[in-house]
Amino acid sequence: MENLFSIGEVSNYQKISKQTLIYYDKIGLFRPAYVDPNNGYRYYSANQLDCLDTILILKRIGFSLQQIREHMQYYNIDSSLVALKKQLSSIDRQILELNLIRSRIKHRCEQMEQAKTYRRQESKIVEEQAKEQFLFTRAVEKPYTLREISIATKQCFADSFQQQLPIYFQCGVIVPLEHIKQGRCTEATSVFLQIEKIGRANNIKRLPAGKCASIYHIGDYPSIGRSYQKLLDYCEANALKIISDSYEFCINDYLTSDDETEYITKIVFYVEAKNGDPAHS
User: Fold this and answer.
1) 125, 234 Cβ separation under 8 angstroms
2) What SS3 class is residue 77?
3) Which of left, alpha, beta for 144 (phi over 0: left; psi -120 to 50: alpha)?
4) Labelling 104: which of 7, 22, 47, 174 has CA 20 to 30 A away?
5) Is 46:2 a contact under the CB 8 Å cutoff?
6) The pLDDT of residue 199
């Protein structure tokens, strides 16, 4: 038809599918200038192509179809400036969030790249000076089985996402020293996620800088008792007094492997010499 473009022509010119144009018509965002009553074919006027350009650009910028439809009911330089500034603020927030996520993924990748080294250190006990760090925690319900631990971990992640907390994508558990001495090594009473130091969240536990003894356990979680026994024996043989509960950091777990034989857990105790020299700062 003269001075009108078919849906196929518009689709070709704008590099947009016919199905998308039909959908835009159905939701009232971009309706054809004329619909042939005999066959239902859609046709668009030349000035509508500018309108479609605007829609596609706003969509590319990040506006939702609902926002675009509301904005384009009537818009001028003032309303467009307000809309674009609002979107700019939204983009800035997304950049901050993506940078945070990127740093967390990078941290996780660095740990995984060291996994082969950890595997060679399965039986090695390491004495180290730990740096201060912070944990976002959640209590595990009794009877502290793996089921309750799993549920608490999922809830901990959900809480952190809801509160938009700056967590690292690494979970762990706290096992009371008394449980370990009784052979109840898998009965954790708290789960945690590593987190940046912040003052706006509850359930934040500070781990101070201090001397620690650690071991890497390789394998499924139920077998972790053997690594605890090695660590306890080492502390006893080297006159180290354990002065904390156990902190288990999951280096390689269900988030990164479905093979439990590949799991790597770092077990950490704060310690001091039995002569009483303090290990914490």
Assistant:
1) yes
2) helix
3) left
4) 174
5) no
6) 65
143: preceding bond cis by omega (within 30 degrees): yes
Q: Which residues contact 279 (CB under 8 A, 6 or more apart)?
A: 210, 211, 212, 243, 270, 271, 272, 273
Q: HEC string of 229-280?
A: HHHHHHHHHCCEEECCCEEEEEEECCCCCCCHHHCEEEEEEEEEECCCCCCE
| Helices 7-14 and 46-61, packing angle to 10 deg | 50
The pTM of this model reads 0.73
pLDDT along the chain (281 residues), means of 10: 88 94 95 93 93 95 95 94 96 91 86 71 85 96 97 95 88 97 97 86 92 94 95 96 97 86 93 69 34
Please provide residue 19's backbone torsions phi and psi, each rounded to the nearest 5 degrees.
-60, -35
**Angle, vertex CA 266, rays to CA 246 and CA 243, nearest 5:** 25
Query: C-alpha angle 191/195/198, rounded to 5°?
Result: 120
Q: Looking at this protein, which amino acid is placed at residue 235?
A: C
Calculated CA dihedral for residues 97, 138, 135, 245, nearest 10 degrees: -160
CA angle 41, 13, 66 (to 5 degrees): 75
Q: What is residue 279's predicted lDDT score, i.e. its pLDDT?
A: 44
Amino acid at position 166, single letter:
P
Percentage helix, strand, coil for the chain under 3-state DSSP, each rounded to 5:
45, 25, 30
CA-to-CA distance for 160 and 138, rounded, in angstroms?
10
Q: Which of 193, 159, 278, 268 is nearest to 224 (CA)?
A: 268
